[in-house]
Design brief:
With about 450 residues, the chain is mainly beta. The protein has a single domain, classed as Methylamine Dehydrogenase, Chain H, CATH 2.130.10.10. It is about 0% helix and about 55% strand. It contains no helices and 34 strands. The chain has strands at about 1-5, 40-45, 50-55, 60-65, 85-90, 95-105, 110-115, 125-130, 145-150, 155-160, 170, 175-180, 185-190, 200-205, 210-215, 220-230, 235-250, 255, 260-265, 275-280, 280-290, 295-310, 310-315, 320-325, 330-335, 345, 350-355, 380-385, 395-400, 405-410, 420-425, 425-430, 435, 440-445. The strands form seven sheets. It has a six-stranded antiparallel sheet, with no helix packed on it. It has a five-stranded mixed sheet with strand order 2-34-1-31-30, with no helix packed on it. Strands 11, 12, 13, 14 and 15 form a five-stranded antiparallel sheet that branches. It is globular, with a radius of gyration of 21 Å. InterPro entries: Motility_Chemotaxis_Reg.
C-alpha cells in the first residue's frame, strides 16, 4: 500500500473532464490553480506507510511515514537504510524543505501516532517503536512509546521514552501545544492487567525539554479510550473517543449496552470536569475533535441511532457523524453522512473541514460525489467544508481509487488549506482524471484552496 498527501481544499471535484492518463514523475507536476483543484503530484517509491500530518502558522506541512525499502526519497535524497521512520517538511508551495530518516533493522515498523507544530515552527511527535533501540536524532531509545521535538530546520532538540513500571502505556493518541504555558498536552491510553481496554491519562509536558509535569486521569471509574484531543487558547481541553459499560468522567455516570459508544468531554486546564456527553444509544466511536471560540466539534462513526436535540438520528447501516456542542455542553447541530468521519479541523474563519469514507452514490450534504462502479467505501474518500454556525454544506470533493484509498491524518492551515495523508494503492482519481500509482509507491498531492 502507498500513501497520498493532499494539500489544499478537498480532492476530486468530479465535474471536470478527465486528463489523459500520464505516468507519475518524481517531481511535482503543476496543474491549473483553481479552488479545490490538484496543483501538484509527486510519486515516491514505496512501500511507504503514512501516519500523521500537521501544519504550522506559516502554512508549512509536516508528514510522518514508515518506509520499508532502500532508496525511498521524499525530496531531499534517499532516506538511510532499508527501512525506518521518516519525517518531512514542505513549504506552502510544495517545495521540499527537509526530510529525516531514522533507520530500523529488525522488521518492526515504527509508528507516529500524533504530531503537532507550535507557533515558532517546532515539530513534536509521539509514537512507539519495537526495535531494541532506535535513535530519533539523539541518544538511542529503548522500545516503547516516545516523545520527540525538532526545530524548524529539522534539528533534533530532545527525545524521550514514556512509560511506567508495571503499566502498559499505549502510544499517545493525541497531542497539542499550550503556547501560553510552554507545555505539551498529551492523551495516553493504558491497559488494565488482563483487560482488553483500560482508561486514559492526560499529561502536561514541558515543551522545552520533554519533562513530564503532571498526569491526570480522564475517568473516575470505568473503561474508555481517547482518540483525539483539542486545546482552546484558554487551556481548556476537549477529548473524544469511545467507552464501554459505565464510566464517570466527573459529571455522573454515562452508560451503554453496546460494544462501544462515542463520547466527548470538556475539562479545565487543570483537568477538572466541565461537561461530558455519551452517545450510548449508538454503537461506534468518536475519532476526532476540534474547537473554535463558540463550539466543540466531534466526528466519528456509528450504527443505530444518536439522540440529538430530542430527535433520533438513524444511521443508514454505518454513518459518519459531525456534532457541534456549545462551550457549556449544549447540543447545537448534528450532521451524518458517508460511511465514516475520521478527521475534523477548523480554519482561521472557523469553517469546519471533515474527511472520511463514503459509499458509491453517496453525497455528504451536497451534490452526489463521484464513484467507481462496483467500488466500496474503501475506494472512496471525501472532504467536505461546512459553514460555521449552522454546519450547512459549503462544498465537497470526492477522491476515488481502483484500489484501496483510506483516510488518514487531517490538518488545516490558517488560510484554509486542508492537509490530508490518505493511504492509497492502484489507479486513483486525484481531481483531474485517473493517475496510476505504481506498485510499492506513494503519492503526494497538493491541492489549492
Amino acid at each position: 500500500m502507498g500513501v497520498a498527501v493532499c494539500l489544499g481544499w478537498g480532492c476530486g471535484a468530479g465535474v471536470e473532464p478527465p486528463e489523459p492518463l500520464t505516468p507519475l514523475a518524481s517531481q511535482a507536476l503543476e496543474t491549473r490553480v483553481e479552488r479545490g483543484a490538484t496543483r501538484q503530484v509527486r510519486a515516491v517509491e514505496g512501500p511507504v506507510f503514512g501516519w500523521t500530518v500537521s501544519v504550522d502558522r506559516a502554512g508549512n506541512a509536516f508528514v510522518s511515514l514508515a518506509y520499508e525499502r532502500s532508496g525511498v526519497e521524499l525530496g531531499g535524497g534517499a532516506l538511510p537504510g532499508d527501512a525506518g521512520l521518516a519525517l518531512a517538511k514542505y513549504a506552502p508551495d510544495g517545495t521540499h524543505v527537509w526530510s529525516l530518516g531514522f533507520p530500523t533493522y529488525h522488521g518492526a515498523r515504527p509508528r507516529v501516532s500524533a504530531m503537532v507544530a507550535d507557533g515558532a515552527g517546532n515539530l513534536y511527535i509521539a509514537g512507539e517503536h519495537r526495535e531494541p533501540t532506535l535513535s530519533l536524532g539523539g541518544e538511542p531509545l529503548p522500545p516503547g512509546p516516545f516523545l520527540a521535538k525538532y526545530g524548524p530546520d529539522g534539528t533534533h532538540v530532545w527525545s524521550r521514552t514514556t512509560g511506567f513500571p508495571g503499566v502498559q502505556l499505549l502510544p499517545a493518541g493525541a497531542l497539542a501545544v499550550d503556547e501560553r504555558r510552554g507545555q505539551l498536552v498529551v492523551a495516553v491510553d493504558f491497559l488494565d492487567k488482563g483487560q482488553p481496554l483500560g482508561a486514559a491519562l492526560v499529561g502536561r509536558v514541558q515543551a522545552e525539554d520533554g519533562r513530564v509535569l503532571v498526569l491526570s486521569p480522564v475517568v473516575r471509574r470505568g473503561q474508555l479510550s481517547v482518540k483525539s484531543l483539542a486545546l482552546e487558547p484558554s487551556g481548556h481541553i476537549s477529548l473524544a473517543g469511545y467507552f464501554v459499560g459505565e464510566v464517570d468522567l466527573g459529571g455522573g455516570v454515562l452508560s451503554t449496552t453496546k460494544a462501544r459508544s462515542p463520547f466527548v468531554a470538556r475539562f479545565t486546564p487543570e483537568m477538572r470536569h466541565v461537561w461530558s456527553r455519551g452517545l450510548g444509544e449508538a454503537e461506534g466511536t468518536a475519532t476526532g475533535v476540534a474547537v473554535e471560540p463558540k463550539r466543540v466539534l466531534v466526528v466519528g462513526e456509528y450504527t443505530g441511532s444518536i439522540a440529538f436535540r430530542g430527535r433520533a438520528e438513524w444511521a443508514e447501516g454505518k454513518d459518519g457523524f459531525v456534532a457541534a456542542y456549545a462551550p457549556t455542553g449544549g447540543e447545537l447541530w448534528m450532521r451524518h453522512f458517508g460511511e465514516s468521519a475520521t478527521g475534523v479541523a477548523v480554519d482561521e474563519e472557523n469553517r469546519v473541514v471533515v474527511t472520511g469514507q463514503y459509499r458509491p452514490g453517496d453525497s455528504v450534504g451536497g451534490p452526489r460525489l463521484p464513484w467507481r462502479e462496483g467500488g466500496t467505501p474503501d475506494n472512496h474518500l471525501y472532504v467536505v467544508k461546512l459553514y460555521r454556525g449552522s454546519g450547512g454544506h459549503e462544498w465537497s470533493r470526492g477522491l476515488v481509487s481502483e484500489g484501496e484509498l483510506r483516510a488518514g491524518g487531517l490538518a488545516v492551515t490558517r488560510k484554509g488549506e486542508a492537509v490530508l495523508l490518505p493511504g492509497v494503492e492502484g489507479a486513483a482519481d486525484v481531481g483531474h482524471g485517473p493517475r496510476t500509482v505504481p506498485p510499492d509507491s506513494a503519492l503526494l498531492l497538493r491541492l489549492v484552496r
